[in-house]
Predict the structure.
Amino acid sequence: MSDPQQPATVPDDGRPLDVFGPDEPRAVPVTRRAALLTFGMLGSAVLLLGMLLLPVPYAVNGPGPTLNTLGEYDGEPLISISGAETYESTGELRLTTVSTTGGPGYPSTLVRVIQGWLSGSTQVLPAEYVFPQGATQEQIDEQNQAQMTSSQENATVAALEELGYTVPTTMTIAGAVEGGAAEGLLQEGDVLRSVDGTPMDSYAQLIDLLAETDPGTALTLGIERDGQATDVTVTTGAKDGGGSQLGVYIDPDFDLPVDVSIKIEQIGGSSAGTMFALGIIDRLTPQDEANGAHIAGTGTMELNGDVGAIGGIRQKMAGALRDGASWFLAPADNCDEVVGHIPDGLQVTRIDTLSEARAAVEAIGAGDTADLPTCTG
């Protein structure tokens, strides 16, 4: 006698299944149209994914990492000092960076560009606006590292001179600007000793003197050439921003009275100079300038203490707020990019010089910030 017909198996969601036997669902034949539709959809998805991941000729600038110059880097003090007494510090003095894709070796994808367009803290630009055309990744990395090394040296000299140290400097001519007034008068290897009879003991002294000199002024330069002292008269040219320039490249050699070492890797450029200098000052003074405050900032540092403009300040402000800063030191020459773009929760004060930056840190640490200048007044 045959068994009774088995009922259809019903899954948990209640949909009946046609069955061959008690437990085996019957395969549904796949039509040619369904197969073509499936493969077409899969192909479109793969093509769309490939398009989203393809490199595109745009640079995307976003908030990069920040580092506390009073803290540690890779288990060691970011700033190490020997040859002078140092002091413990509280609070933070954070250098800020920009994370950029779109250059050689770090292409931007369409996904990254779309994300950048939608983000309020990211900037998207044609790649040629950011990276030199034809440059290799190695060339860009070398240039960034050279700028970082120069930034550290400038910050050290400026910080020590801000604290009253004398930093003897040998200023050797590395060459004359083509077509400039010094061409044919000054030679590579000449050592500058004086200007109009005044000994030039530091590079900052020379910068300050030229800043106060009108273009077209004839200056008598006392130089040492092949071991012999001689005088050369050079008529100064105009410098962008005011003052004069000699039209020569100078390779300064500093005799530092204090040994300062800055440990940092995989970050290039010159925009951290101001925060390096402030970190050195804080470590060398018994006063705890930051006094527990979390302060970030940016700005190049000239040997005479002038703070210069940088790129990517909006991304740097966003990174500062993300990493806990409540105050941001912004170069005065970047104020036009700051106004209207300050993230909620971050306060910004403008700085023109290292002395102003130091005073701002002390005011913030003391909680006396009412008179700090802003980018609007």
Summary: The first strand starts at residue 55 and ends at 56. DSSP finds eight helices and 22 strands in the chain. The longest helix spans residues 137-162.
